[in-house]
Predict the 3D structure of the following.
Amino acid sequence: MSGCCDPSGYRRFFNSKEAARAARSYRKRGLDGTAGPMVGALEPVLDGVTVLEGGSGSGSAHVEMLRRGAGRAVSVDISDAYEPIADAIAADHGVADRIDRFVGDFVTMELPDADVVFLNRVVCCYPDMEGMVDAAARRSRRMVALSYPREPLVHQDGSPPRQSLPAVQERAVQRLRARPRGHRAPARVGRVRTSRGR
Ligand SMILES: C[S@@+](CC[C@H](N)C(=O)[O-])C[C@H]1O[C@@H](n2cnc3c(N)ncnc32)[C@H](O)[C@@H]1O
């Protein structure tokens, strides 16, 4: 059975209905309980930076980062269903000309490096979490902000994922530390307490 963690299920789960729901929620209540605290924690370092958001959905998180000082954003989502909504949200807030948007796989496609790489509720959707964390760290000049569920994951067919959730964070830190000396700042871990996203 396919689910949102199954690449063949992306379009089925992350469809125009889900995109419209996400846009309504953002327009009514602002960022959700995960994105809000993450963007809030980044705010002090956003001035003029470039942001790369993987699995950006409706785009509300990078739109907020642009509103709070970031210079430019690149967004990528594997589902094209969000495109019209993400364009509309960016236009509503007058930041559309500072966003480059792509449809594709964040892990495998060619994307520019950025100061801040942002992944909210995405690593848990992808079968190769390690690959996704590596791709994020590789493209980050300064920071990676990522969220993952506190509860253990179980796929819809009942099988556990290949990687444990604490390993996601561990992997991110290792990969950030492994980057060339002098080129990028050493990795430090900060945690942000979030509420459930919906
Ligand atoms: C649960 S949604 C979260 C959307 C948005 N980050 C948010 O918090 O509202 C997961 C998103 O990640 C996207 N996604 C999953 N794997 C991806 C990948 N490998 N590359 C790009 N996007 C991906 C899905 O299409 C979906 O839009």
